[in-house]
Every structure is written in C-alpha cells, then in structure tokens.
Design goal:
The chain has about 110 residues and is of the alpha+beta class. It has one domain. Helices cover about 25% and strands about 25% of the residues. The chain is built from 2 helices and 4 strands.
C-alpha cells in the first residue's frame, strides 16, 4: 500500500451566497488528504467520497454533489513541488474506506 495525496475543492455556504450576488470572485476552498490505497484510482475514488462528505458537512446538508458545483479531486503526484508544499504536515492521513474527522479538514479549523 502507498499513500496518495488527494486534493479536493469544497465551499462554505456563506461564500457561495456572496459569490452569487457578485461580491466575490471565487467561492471555493481547497484542502488535501493522504489516502493509503492500493493504487491512484482507488485513492481518487475514496477522495471523491471524502470530498463529497466534506462539502455536505460544511453546508449542513446531505444532498450536495461535487458535480453540481464543478468541484473536483486530483492526485498530487509530487507534493514537494506543489503549491501546498509548505502545508504537507497539516493534511490528515487515512486508509482507503476510512472517513476522516471532517471538521479537522476545514479551513476554519486552521484559524
């Protein structure tokens, strides 16, 4: 098994509402998680599930999808060369199928 760093997009409802009114250029937030999996596809599939759960968690609902907002997930092949290289130790580590503590993934948890 190998750990894969999976990036994901989500948003807070307040930012989305402000964006809809035209007062904000971008409403999206981003984070990442290390997923221990057999391969990249397996890690991406579980990352998608985590990203969907995170989106619903911060929006206090259960029916939002990443597709509805054109959010996505991606594999960060070389984290040391990524824009987030200075934050790598802040991302959670889970095994494929293990749901992280979602509050710990949010931007607001870093404040």
């Amino acid at each position: 098994m190998k750990e894969y760093l999976i990036g994901m997009i989500y948003h807070y409802p307040e930012d989305y509402e402000i964006w809809l009114k035209g007062y904000m250029e971008d409403y999206e937030a981003a984070t990442a998680i290390y997923i221990e999996a057999s391969n990249e596809n397996e890690a991406l599939e579980w990352g998608y599930q985590v990203a969907t759960a995170l989106l619903n968690f911060v929006n206090k609902t259960e029916d939002l999808t990443l597709e509805k907002f054109q959010h996505n997930c991606w594999y960060i092949e070389d984290p040391s060369k990524d824009d987030w290289s200075g934050m790598l130790d802040t991302f959670l580590h889970v095994k494929n199928g293990q749901m992280p503590t979602l509050i710990d993934m949010t931007v607001k948890s870093k404040l």
